[in-house]
Amino acid sequence: MALQNRVDPFGDIVAVPYRGTMMGNRGRLHDRDRRIVRTRHLDRWLCCELTFRGRHRTVMSPRGYTELFFLDEATALAAGHRPCSECRHSAYQRFRRAWWDAGLSAELPRAAVIDARLASDRGADHTPIVPLDELPDGVLVQYEGAPHLLWDRQLHRWDWTGYHAPESCRAQPSPVRVLTPRATVDTIHAGYPVTVHPTAFR
């Protein structure tokens, strides 16, 4: 039986048998029986590599953090996470620089500054509705009730196994509801290169 530790673009944690390509955490969310008892523990929501320096972990151990899994980085960013400064150090530095370039801080931001802003941006009350042509590739939007990735100026419907064949943006209504937090959208606009699942390239 699959553990409840897979995250969708809305930030919800569910039990499905698809691990995805990236891991992350929000602190310890589970109890001793490996049941999710909270959806957040810390403001530090990270997106991590599946493997790092040969480390091995028992998933959802009694005293450890809750290992979460995402289809790809685009999904993790939409859910409100940011690159880990340890296992994804280079990506984290690129994210900081793009954050600064976007004018989100007066200097290269510390992790706590990024985490506090993303915490304020997360949630349904903070999902803006904007014209599709104002968004950069790599963000996820809600269209017809389902999450879609904007990639190569086309919409790709998201699911747990990957992205569906693209639909031309010209055929889609605008504006759309943006799932990716506002600050992260600005950071992507400023040049942060989002990693997406290989199915987005078909």
Summarize the structure.
With 202 residues, the protein is α+β, with helices and mostly antiparallel strands.
Explained architecture:
The protein is α+β, with helices and mostly antiparallel strands. The chain has a domain at 4-89. 19% of the residues lie in helices and 22% in strands. It has helices at residues 73-78, 89-101, 111-121, 182-189; strands spanning 4-7, 13-15, 22-25, 46-48, 68-70, 82-83, 129-130, 140-143, 146-151, 154-159, 162-163, 167-168, 176-178. Strands 7, 8, 9, 10, 11, 12 and 13 form a 7-stranded antiparallel β-sheet that branches. A 4-stranded mixed β-sheet has the order 5-3-4-6. Strands 1-2 form a two-stranded antiparallel sheet. A hairpin with a 2-residue loop joins strand 8 (140-143) and strand 9.
| Whole-number mean pLDDT | 91
Number of helices: 4
Dominant shape = globular
Which percent band covers the strand fraction?
A: 15-25%
Radius of gyration over all CA atoms, rounded: 16 Å
* Unreliable residue stretches: none
Order of helices and strands: EEEEEHEHHEEEEEEEH
Major beta-sheet overview: 7 strands, antiparallel
Distance between the termini: 31 Å
Could you say which structural class the secondary elements and strand pairing correspond to? alpha+beta
- Helical amount: 10-25%
**Total beta-strand segments:** 13
